[in-house]
Amino acid sequence: MPTLPTLCDIASSARAKRERRKDARPGELLAAALELFVEKGFAATRAEEVAKLAGVSKGTLFLYFSSKEELFKAVVRENISGRFSEWSAELETFEGNSADLLRYCMTAWWERVGSTKASGISKLMMSEAGNFPELAAFYQEEVVKPGNDLIRRVLQRGVDSGEFRQLNVEYGVYLLLAPMMFLALWRHSLGPCVAGNGELDPIAYLNTHIDNLLLGLTVRTPAAPNAS
């Protein structure tokens, strides 16, 4: 005959559930904040809306994050800037040539960031940075600079190995950033409105851009003259 749970067992189980719920709250709040920041923008998103979507009180939100600004920074770190160490390690251990690395970086960006809600953060910053200079400075330090540095390293790798021609690497970074930023803006503006009518295939678009970019970057061996 099965033993009935005691009051102590029930209390212990309830405490364990509360602890699991407590541990999950920061992640739930970050997911809710990302959803609303991308949908409504930073200025229009209210803390109580984030708390409600996460299923907690506004007071609970402020137990984890001292302000809406700190909540936004945590969202950026969770979804983008906190992953730069991982991405940097991938760059260091990549075994293919620099053309393959460039293609891998751009398509991996789309799969991991561009195709997710996190890409809406770029659109948010472009539209609201002027009104929130502290957040703009934070984003510049934690996302823009390390992101540009990764791209710069890819290009410099190709130049140093003799695969890519000499170029102004500082400005070459923007050749790669341009299509990525276009896709981020497109996904969170016109993209959802043109499904089935001029819809864009992001991977095909990126590959077309990369193919043309490599035509300009790659050092080509001059053809040998025909024997007379």
TrEMBL record:
The keyword Acyltransferase does not apply. Residues 46-65 bind DNA. Residues 23-83 form the HTH tetR-type domain. Keywords: DNA-binding, Transcription, Transcription regulation. It comes from the Bacteria. SUPFAM superfamilies: Homeodomain-like (SSF46689), Tetracyclin repressor-like, C-terminal domain (SSF48498). InterPro entries: Homeodomain-like_sf (IPR009057), HTH-type_TetR-like_transc_reg (IPR050109), HTH_TetR (IPR001647), Tet_transcr_reg_TetR-rel_C_sf (IPR036271), TetR_C (IPR011075). Pfam families: TetR_C_11, TetR_N. The keyword Kinase does not apply. PANTHER family: HTH-TYPE TRANSCRIPTIONAL REGULATOR RUTR, HTH-TYPE TRANSCRIPTIONAL REGULATOR UIDR. This is TetR/AcrR family transcriptional regulator.
